[in-house]
User: What shape does this take?
Amino acid sequence: MQRHLPAGDAGAGATATMRRDHDEVAELTRQLQQLRDALAGPLTTERRRGVQRLLYGLHAVVRLHFAKEEEVYLPLLDARLTAEEAAEMYKTMHGPPSPARAPGRAADIAGRHLL
Assistant: This one.
């Protein structure tokens, strides 16, 4: 995907913010797993608040990430990708598409991974 974004610092910076989102999702998920693994007995108010904090944070990061994809990256990719390049990107991300779900535009590709 990065090869279809602006060259130089703009392209590197553009993908860096998305990679940072992925890192944050992984970290929040790791923390949530730690809380789950530490649960023994009834859920205390403190632990419940910790779980809520992590879930709200995870929700916010994922919503923002998807909004950036839809509003910034997908239009940019649609403008720069050929149908063949979009199909190759889809294949790289998800494996070969089924005939009923053959990709066309980058927005179509992204929408499919949410289904």
